[in-house]
Specification:
The protein is α/β, with parallel strands linked by helices. Helix content is about 40%, strand content about 20%. The strands form three sheets. The chain has an eight-stranded mixed β-sheet, sandwiched between helices. Strands 12-11-10-13-14-15 form a six-stranded parallel β-sheet, with helices on both faces. Strands 1-16 form a two-stranded antiparallel sheet. The longest helix has 25 residues. The radius of gyration is 22 Å and the shape is globular. It starts with a strand and ends in a 5-residue tail after the last strand.
Length: about 425
């Protein structure tokens, strides 16, 4: 795990080279929709803001162009996807097809005008092999592990740690991290996990999902409808626990007649969640909305009264950091979240209203409490906002840029800066 330490002499050297540094060409590869992937966007914004050229290769959402420039980033959408895979073979086929297409695309782009950095985002880990041609030309490779794959797979398909597939995922993890020059991992709990089984500590850095103040900052509410809006924005998967939140809301909706629960997003569980909503008689108070891009979802989140992040304490969910918690915090919106390991690792009860994980009765009481007590909502909001400001991407992005500059051996870059322990926070 690394941190870039600059002495006064180093700082002067960095300042003198910044003005003359040659802009870098970087490529980011992600099996996701770029326009809704905040983690990838935070990296691209940091690079583009300092003058680098960034290409993003990603999935294509219906209705969007195959190529466009978004905030200075060249976005190439090379494959359509609907998040409706329920079988392992269907899921694997789409990923392997994307691997092949992205490998061809990257090879053509790199041979035409070489990239100086490849930043590959999982899931899956083996997506890094799409950049085998840049690897042959010694282009630095970062593997960014958003979700630790063996545990993610076990949660998605309800496998166990001793299963053959889980063990295969660990092997893939080891091979993929070995192929990279550096590994970024999404939280400190996973840092300890992955360095214990797959990668050396000095080759791995934890970088948390930090909301960008360009998007996530307090907004003045414009809504005057008198409703009490609770909201969840994100993927509709089993481990996200939306069924728990719907059941919780059903327990108290008669005591909160003006309350609504708005769910924004897509995913394989959407139909079953709609069925559950209808079965519980919540049509009209639990409202499902379609996906909207980051800029629009920020406005909608800012209009909510409470954010609800109800994920399960599964093998994966217990340790997967929720980006949405920090995003709600940065907007000044109070959050209800389960007391899973990762949430209590980074937060306390002064800024998050915790409920017992997977306990819909306890979640219902938390909903009722925040509806009844505006002063508790305000207290949570102010404490959360202060924490979010101290940990925004504007503060944390320097660590990522220092890491990049330590890997890219290009004239004008600060690649001679000292590298020492411990790591980025």
């Amino acid at each position: 795990m690394i941190r870039i330490e600059s002495t006064m002499e180093d700082a002067k050297s960095a300042n003198s080279t910044t003005a003359t540094r040659k802009p870098m060409r970087a490529c980011m590869l992600t099996y996701s929709f770029y326009e809704s992937d905040a983690r990838v966007q935070q990296y691209t914004s940091a690079l583009v803001d300092r003058g680098d050229t960034v290409d993003v290769i990603c999935l294509k959402r219906e209705g969007l162009p195959s190529r466009e420039v978004l905030n200075g980033v060249n976005v190439y959408r090379i494959q359509k996807r609907k998040r409706n895979e329920k079988g392992q073979l269907a899921y694997a086929f789409k990923i392997l097809l994307f691997l092949f297409r992205s490998a061809v695309f990257i090879t053509r782009k790199h041979l035409g005008q070489p990239y100086e950095l490849m930043h590959i985002h999982n899931v899956p880990d083996f997506l890094i092999f799409a950049a085998f041609v840049p690897k042959l030309t010694r282009t630095p490779m970062i593997l960014d592990i958003h979700d630790i794959l063996p545990e993610f797979y076990a949660s998605k398909f309800k496998s166990k740690r001793n299963s053959l597939v889980f063990k295969l995922m660990v092997i893939i993890e080891k091979v993929s991290t070995a192929f990279s020059d550096h590994v970024i991992i999404a939280n400190h709990i996973w840092y300890e996990r992955i360095t214990s089984r797959s990668v050396q500590r000095d080759k791995c850095t934890p970088i948390l999902n930090s909301p960008s103040p360009l998007f996530f900052s307090p907004h003045q509410k414009s809504r005057t409808d008198g409703k009490f809006i609770m909201m969840y924005p994100g993927t509709l998967n089993w481990h996200q626990g939306l069924d728990i939140a719907i059941r919780a809301f059903a327990r108290v909706t008669d005591q909160m007649p003006e309350a609504e629960f708005h769910i924004y997003g897509e995913g394989p569980d959407k139909d079953s969640l709609k069925t559950l909503t209808k079965m519980l008689g919540l049509d009209g108070s639990v409202i499902f909305k379609e996906f909207v891009p980051t800029r629009q979802i920020v406005q909608l989140m800012a209009e909510a009264d409470v954010g609800v992040v109800p994920k399960r304490a599964s093998l994966f969910g217990n340790e997967a950091q929720s980006t949405k918690i920090m995003e709600f915090m940065a907007l000044g919106i109070p959050v209800i979240a389960p007391d899973v390991k990762i949430s209590t690792y980074y937060h306390d009860a002064s800024r998050v209203k915790f409920f017992k994980a997977e306990n819909d009765a306890d979640l219902a009481q938390c909903m009722l409490l925040l509806w009844r007590e505006p002063h508790i909502r305000e207290q949570l909001s102010q404490n959360a906002l202060a924490h979010a400001r101290q940990n925004s991407w504007a503060v944390k992005s320097k660590g990522y840029l220092d890491l990049v500059d330590s890997l890219v051996p290009s004239p004008g870059y600060a690649h001679n800066r000292k590298v020492s322990q411990p790591g980025l926070q």
